[in-house]
Amino acid sequence: MNSKRIRGCKSLIRITLLGLTSLGITACSSIVSQSHQPIEKTNVYSPFSYKQQQLEQLVQWDVEGKIAAYVDNKNNSGLMTWRQRGDEFDLLINGPLGSGQLRIEGQPDLVIATSNKNQVASNTVENLFEQEFGWPFPMHELRYWVRGIPKPNDVAKISLNSQGNARVIEQAGWHVTFHSYNNIAVPTSIQENTLTSLTMPKKIEIIGNDVRLILVLKSWSNLSPFPRPNLGDG
Prior knowledge:
Layout: H1 3-29, H2 48-56, E1 60-71, E2 74-85, E3 88-95, E4 100-107, E5 110-115, E6 119-122, H3 125-132, H4 139-145, E7 156-160, E8 166-171, E9 174-187, E10 195-208, E11 211-224
Antiparallel strand pairs: 1-2, 1-11, 2-3, 3-4, 4-5, 5-6, 7-8, 8-9, 9-10, 10-11
């Protein structure tokens, strides 16, 4: 075998070993959790701690999609429109819960639910669902889970995917799995005419005691304040 062919074989071996090493790193990164080694920075909002800090400040959004509720061996699903403005929200659900249409309007210490059958009020969404439907709806936590982050100041176990986004959040007795994400374009600032990509949950599965919820969030808009990309931490 001449010297050129020997050098070519050595190069091929080195390339193959590097490829196998890269595959091993990728496989390990898919199961890393927040409490272990640092997450590989694969998007502008990594690491997760920075993304969490930014998204906790996000207090306004509109999102449309679908919701399915599996309770007492009954499956109900319908369309959902969620409008959040600070501590006030307007949640419109068409289809599930046997009501045809359910609209829940909330503000601190007052929640009003209007359906085709009646109108009821309570001090929290959680209490309202327990009274009217007999099962819990984790609205306080869900406000954060739909952003792909845990509720602040509450104990939570978080596992991340290979892109540095939440894969599973276990909190307040609920198991939340993020099956997929959407990349949406948001301005980098109000003054600049430039856009950046923000990763937001698309399909979320929420499991509690005798309750299973699935949310498919298709369309995000009116996000404010815009999360700042972590461009300086490469």
